[in-house]
Design a protein that fits this description.
Strands 1-2-4-5-6-3-9-12-11-10-8-7 form a 12-stranded antiparallel sheet. The chain has 303 residues and is an alpha+beta fold. The chain is built from 6 helices and 12 strands. The protein is globular and about 55 Å long. The protein has a single domain (3-125, 144-299), classed as Acyl-CoA thioesterase, double hotdog domain (Porin), CATH 2.40.160.210. Helix 2 (50-62) packs antiparallel against helix 5 (208-218). Strand 10 (261-271) and strand 11 (274-283) form a beta hairpin. Pfam families: 4HBT_3, Acyl_CoA_thio.
Length: 303
């Protein structure tokens, strides 16, 4: 696939991402909740990408908070698969506005039922104690193959989507696990840990609220891969079933989603057909900007 075709497709995907994050206000309902409506990105999976709903929910909550207060954490549960053919309504409950913090509950609703329930907290910028875990030493993203380099020429719907339509460039330090047989941890001796560089496919406006919402979107892209890698599976393994169950994200410091971010990922546990993924997110200068945790249903085919 030619670079200009790939770049144009990814730029189109980025425009689509910005479109779905630009929610339409819908007034206030009878219970006093602020309402917004959002469209969906195309997905080859037949369901809405969970990161999209996370990002949209962050945008909806942010729209109801004083701009001086930035989102610093969110905790959400995925309750039902999203229908990509139907717009999503976001109902925001204003839980609290204190002296320094604000809290919001967001329900993402389709067909009269919530598909995601999330609480987010916002805080004014304040001084205080400051420390962070250091970033590991890893190869630069320019030295690693892109998704298009790895699977861009394959005639497979998921490969075409990964390489051409997703609005992010993803580069694995340990090697990608898109296709069966590509995981380097093929047995239980490997711990599944990985490092992944990620950035969106073009420049974003100078809006920290938008960059934080885009990070929420991106935080769902690879977070469960350590579980798959740990057990020698890949995204295209026949019979695999993976779905996000809950998601937590803490924004520690300002972030730019249009510059390279390093996701340092691990999986401390998997049991009961559930796997837990954790990630520390660093900017290119090595500053810890966020931490992510997600538990997902991970049903792998029997050998």
């Amino acid at each position: 696939m030619a670079d200009d075709v790939r770049d144009a497709a990814q730029a189109h995907g980025l425009a689509g991402l910005l479109d779905v994050l630009d929610l339409t206000p819908g007034g206030v309902d009878a219970s006093g909740q602020d309402l917004f409506t959002g469209e969906n990105q195309r997905s080859p999976h037949g369901r809405v990408f969970g990161g999209q709903v996370l990002g949209q929910s962050v945008v909806a909550a942010t729209r109801t908070v004083d701009p001086a207060r930035r989102v610093h954490s969110m905790h959400g549960y995925f309750l039902r698969p999203g229908d990509p053919s139907t717009p999503i309504t976001f109902a925001v409950e204003r839980l609290r506005d204190g002296g320094s913090f604000s809290a919001r509950r967001v329900h993402a609703i389709q067909h009269g039922q919530p598909i995601l329930s999330m609480i987010a907290s916002f805080q004014e910028d304040q001084d205080g104690v400051d420390h962070a875990a250091p970033a590991p030493s890893v190869p630069e993203p320019e030295s690693l193959p892109s998704i298009a380099d790895l699977v861009g020429r394959l005639d497979h719907p998921f490969a075409r989507y990964w390489a051409r339509e997703r609005p992010v460039d993803v580069r694995h330090v340990e090697g990608a696990i898109y296709l069966p047989g590509t995981s380097k941890d093929q047995d239980d001796d490997g711990d599944g840990s990985q490092a992944v560089w990620l950035r969106v496919a073009g420049p974003l406006p100078e809006d920290q609220a938008l960059h934080r919402a885009v990070l929420a979107w991106a935080s769902d892209v690879t977070i469960l891969e350590p579980v798959l890698r740990r057990h020698g599976a890949a995204w295209a393994t026949p019979g695999i079933r993976v779905a996000s169950l809950d998601h937590a994200l803490w924004w520690h410091r300002p972030v730019r989603a249009d510059d390279w971010l390093l996701f340092v990922e691990e999986t401390p546990s998997a049991s009961g057909a559930r796997g837990l993924g954790l990630a520390r997110v660093y900017d290119r200068a090595g500053t810890l900007v966020a931490t992510v945790a997600q538990e997902g249903m991970t049903r792998l085919p029997h050998p």
